[in-house]
Structures are given as C-alpha cells and as structure tokens.
Amino acid sequence: MVYQDTISRVLYIDVKDKKFWITDRKDLFDKYIGGTGVATQLLLEECPMGIDPLSPDNPIIFAVGPLVGVFPLASKTVAMFKSPHTGDLGESHAGGRSAIAIRLAGYGAIVIKGASDFPVYVSVQGNQVFFKDATTLWGMNSSLTPARIMREREKGAGYRTILRIGPAGEKMISYACVVSETYRHFGRLGLGAVFGSKKLKGIIISGKQSLKVTDSKKYKQLYKQIYDQAVNSEVMRKYHDLGTPINVMALNNLGGLPTKNLQQTSFEQAKEISGENIAEKYLGKRIACAHCPTACVHLANLRESYKDSPYFYKTTYVGYDYEPLFSLGTMLGIENAKDILILIEEVEKYAMDAMSAGVILAWATEMFEKKLISTVETAGVEPAWNNTKAYVDMLAKIIKQENDFYKALGRGVVYASEIYGGKEFALAHGKNEMSGYHTGPASHLGYLLSARHSHLCNAGYSLDQSLLMEKEVSPEEIVDKLVEEEGVRQILSSLVVCFFSRAIYKDMNLISELLALMGIKYSAEDLKRLGREIHSEKFKFKLREGFSFENLKLADRVYETKAPTGYISRDYIERALIYAKKIIEK
Ligand code: SF4
Questions:
Q1: Does residue 305 surpass a pLDDT of 90?
Q2: Residue range 146-168: average pLDDT?
Q3: Which of 500, 502, 505 is the pocket-test mutation for ligand 1 (most atoms within 8 Å of CB)?
Q4: Per residue in 209-246, pLDDT tens?
Q5: CA distance linking residue 536 with residue 106, whole number of Å
Q6: pLDDT at 468
Q7: pLDDT over 90 percentage in the chain
Q8: Contact call for residues 440 and 473 (beta carbons, < 8 A)
C-alpha cells in the first residue's frame, strides 16, 4: 500500500500582498526527502542571485521531514534563507512545537516571500492563512510580551507553534534570532533580522491533520525500539540528566574551553558555572520539544530582587545550554552562575543569538583592555572581564544602535574588526562567531568547512578528541571525515531528527526501514549518496553567492592559544583547505 502523505504540500505566503497558495512539490520531496534537502532546493529556486539579504526578495523557508510527528526525536524544523550575518547560506534548526505544528497543519514546507508595509503576524490554521496587524506588538522591549499576546489571541493551545522575533529582529541586528515557543531558537545566522526586514513579527501555525503508516505492527515495533533508546541509553541519558552543560567541566579539564576571548582554555571558576553546580542550585525543571521523550531543555530558576524593595522578588525560568554558558560565561570571564543566567535572560529578551552576542562582547572587552577603543566608542561603558553590569548595558546599546560602534557590533565581530581593528582576535569562521570548542585543528576546520559554519554540521571537536589526541592524522584524512559526517547529517536534517539523537538514527538501514513505513523507498546506499548530493547543493548556493575557500581564515588567536592537541599549525589548516576545495568543488 502506498500512503499519500501531505508532506509534499508547500504553503507559499506573500506578506506584501497578503495572499497565499498551496502547491504540491512531490518532485522535490520524492528526490530530497524533506527538511534540509528540500529547503536547499526551495532556496535555490526562490532566492535571486546576489540579493541583499534584508531585501523583500530574500525568502524564508521552513521545512520538516516525513518522520516528524511519527517517530520520537523527529522534532525539528529547518529554516533556510540568505544570511544577513554572513551573506551566504543561512540555515538554522529549532524544535519546540514548530515541526509537529507544521506537519499537522498539513505541510512539508512553508515559503514566506515579500515584505509588508506595516508590522504583521501570520496565523496559519490548517488550510487557512490570516494576516493580522501587529503594529501594537512592534517596538516592545521584550520578545516575551508579544508572544504572550499572540498566545491569548490565537487558537490551538497545546499544539500550535508561535515563532516570533524580539527587538533585535525589529532592528535587523544581523544575528537576531527567532524564538520558538520559549527556550528554543532558530539561533544562528540572523533569521530574526530577515523577519524584521519583512515587518513580520511572528508566525503561528496549527492544524489537526493525522498521519498514517503503511504497516502498524512494524511501526509499533520500531517505535518501541527508538523510544527505549531515547529514554534508557547512556548517550541520551546525559542529555536529560545534566544536558549539554556537562561540557563545561569536560572541556575545562581537557584544556579546550575558550575563556576570555580565547586567551585561555580553562577557567578558574569553571566549577561554579558548571552544569553540575547550576543543576544543584538553580535547576527548576526540564522540558522537551514536542514528541521527544529525552527532554534535554534545562530551565534554571532565576530569583532577582527588585532594586528598591529587597524582599520582593521576580522569579524567571531561564533556559541554559553549554553554548551560552561558554559565550556569555567563560568568554566574558563571568565568575558566577547567577550572572550568566542574567545575561542569558537579557539576550532572550532581545531575541538575539547568544553565541554571537557573547563572542562579540568578548572581542569588545579585549579591544578596551588593549586601549584600541575607549569610552568614546563604548558610550561611557567600561567593559571588563566579569563585569556583568557593563555587558547588560552594552547589549541594550546594541539594541538601541546607540552610536557607530554599537551599529558595528550589531553586524558581528568580523564587520566590527574591519572598522576598529583587532582582527587578530576577532573569533569567527566564515563570519559566524566561534562555537565553544578549541579542542584542536579538526574543531576549527569543522566550523570553516561546514556549509553553515557551525559546530553542529560535523562535530570536528569530537575528531580532535577521538583521533588527534591519540595520533597524527593528515589534514586530508580529517577533511574526508568531516565531509563524510556532514553528508550523514544532511540526511538527519532532511528527516528532520534532532542531532542529539544521531547515535540512534545514524544507521542508514534503520532510516530506510522507517521511510518505508511512510511509503518512501530509499536504500541505505541511496541515502548515503543523497547526503553527499545535498551537501554539494548547499555549496552550489554558497558559491553562487560569493563564498570562496580562499577567503576562509582563522584569527591569529586560534594559532596562539594551545589546544589539547597542542598548538594548531597554519600549514595543517592551509593544506586542509586546499584539499577541501578540491573535493567539495569537484
Ligand atoms: S533532545 Fe532536546 S533539543 Fe533534541 S528534540 Fe529532545 S528536547 Fe529537543
């Protein structure tokens, strides 16, 4: 029996003319499964070459895959767009309820085009789309208030998703993010700024479609197998128990924890800001993306007293992961957990990428320390390691775009360092601020070579630990492994499953069986080939938009600061890049 799924329906929304239409794109879904595979093709179709990412012509594409809503941990949505932060491929993944809501609304993908003349939010309810005036929601100081208003106004409580921007998106800060429900984000590469350029405050999606499988007996058996691993296996338990913050101590002990703008790789106060300590003192609860039994989202209970009334408290739940603990913690030399939670809360309020924000502030601190900028540029603020108050003020000034310096900070560390100097310690890869792993050459090559310059694409840091700390491995061999891993991850992000579950879903034979239950035929070999093809299609977009391997550079700081594998050699990185160009561009 071949089940006719709704996965191939694509909803097109034009926010300029306030119209929508639905097209069946079986051609794309048959060939590229869904998620990343399909979104890349829609981006190639919809995004005119060479456009300004903040122009109305930049499309926003959301895509899910056939396993979403059917198997545990298939809980993610892929967003694609041309990035206003890097000028090339913009890709970001988020969970929350986004993926299930899109799938149950009856779509495999949603394409948003044009720009509105006034602030709007869009409400998708199954086959209907409503355009709502969001003028009164625009200009609020926090991303949380408009979300609450949308929640009260719109139907679908419990199964809808609310994706929205905050002040950073409205001001088109190039690393503004989009928040899914609360605590999950399309964090990297500036999707929030693209929303802002379209005057799109948010999108709410709900629907009640049901999904079918071809063989319910087999489905129950495979579902149980995956579910059991999601809740019982050691590898998934770690995400539930301490979550990714477990990495603070692990990397600190290894000497790979970027600290104070990567001047150090271990932090004297690591224990205080570790996942273990935060769990003990602040953990309030764990939550999960829809249809995920692992529940890795850790929320800390932040209690702050009001300024003039010491016995009156405001209590907030703050989501924390390893990455913000690194970027807003160790990179800024913040010595206590509560202060990091305060900074995470600020960034959440403005809805900006926590990783970029922290790395940019770290660069600005070193610039100030080295007297390359003064209080003239910082508008009176004196940034210094562990000065939380200064960082809170600077984040507010970035949002206000208070002067030229803060306007530059609103465009990222590469842009700011081109104007003010300090390129040698501006820590970014392909213009995307660095992630929290200075473990060796594979981690940095991983960021440089991945299609979206993110640690999530190929986990180079794990190659440093599993291979390079043990023996010498040639740069060519490392590049081969990174590219191979990225191919596998293209399949995972086409299904779309959470990368934390890669140990469960990495087996292509299993994926082939799961897809067969949805009436989709792919052999394990087909899947491997397709992963490589999707990877090349992404590079097709990147190269079209001006990406070049020759422009990939590491800041001097990366070579100067010892990693667990030793000092990283320039020759090693350069040889790897020459080889990567040859195999990726061929
Ligand atoms: S493991 Fe965490 S991020 Fe992944 S789907 Fe589950 S709750 Fe979401």
A1: no
A2: 93
A3: 500
A4: 999 999 999 999 999 999 999 999 988 999 999 999 99
A5: 29
A6: 75
A7: 92
A8: no
Say if residue 189 is exposed, middle or buried (CB neighbours under 10 Å; 0-12, 13-18, 19+).
Answer: buried
Q: Tell which wins on pLDDT, 456 or 502.
A: 502
- Entry pTM: 0.97
How would residue 306 be classed by pLDDT, with cut points 50, 70 and 90? confident
Q: Is 349 helix (H, G, I), strand (E, B) or coil?
A: helix
Rounded distance, CA 21 to CA 452, Å?
Answer: 30
Mean of pLDDT values over 550-572: 96
Count CA atoms closer than 13 A to 338's CA, side-chain side: 7
Mean pLDDT for the stretch of residues 123-132:
97
Structural domains in the chain, CATH included, are: 9-206 (3.60.9.10)
> For position 3, what pLDDT does the model report?
43
Q: Cβ distance 7 to 108 under 8 Å?
A: yes
| Average confidence score pLDDT of the chain | 95
Residue 503: CA atoms inside 13 Å, Cβ hemisphere, count?
Answer: 13
Q: Is 292 in the pocket of ligand 1 (CB under 6 A)?
A: yes
Q: Is the CB of 504 under 6 A from ligand 1?
A: no
The token duo for 569 is 């050699």
pLDDT at 451 over 50: yes
Our mutation pick for probing the ligand 1 site, out of 67, 287, 320, 498, counting the most ligand atoms within 8 A of Cβ, is 498
Q: Which residues are 186's β-sheet partners? A: 178
pLDDT value for 2: 42
Helices (DSSP H) in 154-293: which residue ranges? Answer: 167-170, 191-197, 216-232, 234-241, 247-254, 275-281
Task: For ligand 1, pick from 71, 292, 497 the residue to mutate: most ligand atoms within 8 Å of CB.
Answer: 292
User: Hey, is 115 helix, strand or coil?
Assistant: coil
**Ligand 1 nearest atom to the CA of residue 76, by list position:** 5
Distance CA 250, CA 237 (A): 16
**Matching residue, tokens 């679908």:** 156
Query: Which of 17, 79, 84 shows the shortest CA–CA distance to 52?
Result: 84
Q: Are 251 and 237 in contact (CB under 8 A)?
A: no
Single-letter residue type at 379: A
Task: Specify the residue for token string 């209690």.
Answer: 303
CB 126 within 8 A of CB 21: no
